[in-house]
């Protein structure tokens, strides 16, 4: 019996030989598209986050042209379209507030249009998870292409890294160690080419997640944005997506549980951003893959940080690329039984096929597994009365001597309270205290801002104190560092015990035992609970209201509750 072939989605638009087909084709032809592009070949949507408001993605028009060239070479029909783009530097109150909104834009744009497969152009932090979340809910063949990191920052003969040196230089300025002129000069030296932050911050981490999940091409994580090989990668992705459509390899066939497990271990090996925890859980939940905080804790054990990159180390993404990039890291994981070797990747080969011969050209940048840059550094998930739903700490960015610590709480009720009091010389605080910041979680901020790495009080900085235990329901920039406990669940604004902590309370941290406890009696907690008032939404209408009413806690990826899962790539009925 002859096997029935299912036509591509796009045929429901471009393949019609009636008035509607006329409409779909004729308007598309207005920019010079020949008739043969409508012959049933795969239509590839190039989902572009180009925006002048998102400096990290400002070269994406060029990148899209390279994807298009690849699609055409492989016999596909490329159609580029814009989606909401999110930049870390300009968006207020935080780009994270809009990650879920952008994912809805991607999901609906893909489903509503004649698209058979998609290439996602991602770069700045939130553009990667938002596009992957949206695409996962549609489940078409998909490849993500990252825009690549900027060249290394160069300042007075030394390398400086995005974010990381902003934190240290702003603390130096506050402590009077550098002048305002030097500070301004550094601004011009730090970001001197196209691309995203060139430390192993959230953008580089997410680009590494793209590669280790197998949803990006080998080399995706590290080639600089301005390196010709980045454009080659985009072109090859254009060629491959056409084949993925022909082979019906949808995103859910790539993003399986073993693929996520590979990514979690890769995140530990690169000393990746804590933000990856939230984003990977959110993407997995769209696909129906059961990924939890426990997976992060379990899989990260026994993995060492191999790369010596800022913010944990010395080098930058450009050095990482020249040293061999992520394939050299994944190869070592594979050699130590820390990689699912046989998972399929978008170039049609298995993960192990892609990395088994990957060379390492610089063992200072990519250290050997037996002599790693830092030992046992996977994310640690803490539990206790302060965070029954979990909280995380990134040991590779923390001070070893503070991993077991008991201290007196110095509490800031919100970020405004923190800014108001932190510089006060009379603030009652010493280096043994634990800084506690409330109301910066998904609902509390709103959007869960990257303020968890609170700057230390100037009076302690001047004494040479460089780290203290800090606790909050916020996130932390991937470029930041310190003994910082984040993503407390439940957050203060959702009624977590964090909301009830007071100045002077004793808090006990024991990372080895995965414990975080508030040492206050049950009777006292009950008394404080009675006095606690539930916060109101920050705005009564619009997206902010929708977000406030529906956002989930950090352990569930801070997605909107009604966005979990996927609706698939069904063809909506037409409007004629
Ligand atoms: Fe865009 Fe850092 S600001 S990646």
Short description:
With 576 residues, the chain is of the alpha/beta class. The protein has helices spanning 11-14, 19-28, 60-73, 99-112, 127-138, 164-174, 180-190, 202-213, 228-246, 251-254, 257-270, 275-287, 293-300, 317-323, 325-335, 351-355, 415-421, 458-461, 522-531, 542-550, and strands at 43-48, 77-82, 117-122, 142-146, 153-155, 158-160, 380-382, 390-393, 404-412, 434-437, 469-472, 484-489, 506-510, 515-518. 35% of the residues lie in helices and 12% in strands.
Structure description:
Helix 5 runs parallel beside helix 12. Helices cover 35% and strands 12% of the residues. It is globular. With 576 residues, the chain is an alpha/beta fold. An eight-stranded mixed beta sheet has the order 7-8-12-11-10-9-13-14. The model has no long low-confidence stretch (mean pLDDT 96).
Structural class: alpha/beta
User: How many β-strand runs?
Assistant: 14
Poorly predicted spans? none
Q: Class of the largest domain in CATH?
A: Alpha Beta
CATH-wise, what's the superfamily of the largest domain?
Response regulator
Q: Which fold name corresponds to the CATH topology of the largest domain?
A: Rossmann fold
Radius of gyration: 24 Å
What integer is the average pLDDT?
Answer: 96
Bound molecules: FE2/S2 (inorganic) cluster
Distance between termini? Answer: 36 Å
The fraction of residues in strands falls at 5-15%
